[in-house]
Design brief:
single chain; alpha/beta; Alpha/beta knot; 7 strands; globular
Length: about 140
Amino acid sequence: MLVLAPLRSNVNLSRIVRLCGCAGIPELIHCGQGKVDREIARDAADYVQVVQRRSLLPVLKQLRQDGFRMAGLEQTTGSQCLYDYSFAPKTALVIGAEREGLSQDELNALDDVIEIPVYGQPYSFNVATATTMAVYEYCRQYPNG
């Protein structure tokens, strides 16, 4: 399961929808008012259901009740390296907004926080790029879904 905080850019949202199509993720939750650009999302716009919600914390609470392990992608002092992290089979990967990331309340609602190592500048990846890297690490660990 992929869960997105409100993204500022419809381009990023559309790229993530395309990623979901490529990775076989049939649904994602987006907290916000973004719109998918079909030219960017390509055929994935026809196959990936984008469920829109108003805010992230109630979504995280519901997913926890549904048995998901919550893993947020964020740079924090206590985050684990993505490449050392073992995803649970039933993981909700939570992605923060561009620039703002995840709030402290949102981070507190997670089981784990993971980050992608950065070796130069800028200090972080674009949200769509980072999401792609994290989703494909999950796919590497669970190649059959």
